[in-house]
Amino acid sequence: MPQYVYRSMQNSESPRVSNLGEESDQTTMRTNSNGEQFVPYSVFHLNAQSIGTAQHKIECIVQENNCKFIAITEHWKGANQLPAYVVPAYKLVSSFCRREKKHGGAAVYCSGDVKCSAREDLTELSVPYLFE
After folding, report:
1. Residue 36 vs residues 41, 43, 102: alpha-carbon distances, Å
2. Where is the composition biased (Polar residues) (predicted)?
């Protein structure tokens, strides 16, 4: 069964698990204890156990919660299949797909209004079955 985790993170603060229905103002500028200003953002993680069967749930949850980032593990798709699974208003930023055997994989999507790019130095560290 898929597991849902919704976390609100604010710069260098530790993540906290929030209720899926929690309301938050994603655009309000805040100041941390060091006087640095930041905008809070939200991350949604799903251990999908096949993105194909979970896509509708993903779309509903991120729309209701104004998530800026989506992390999907166990998407179970190959490198040529994953781009076909589009989340409206999000772009696929980084992914890992197994070349052999079934299942596994990880993907990171980012909201279209956020400027981001993949960290190639980190994606090169991926090891099938151990660190995807």
Report:
1. 15, 21, 45
2. 8-17
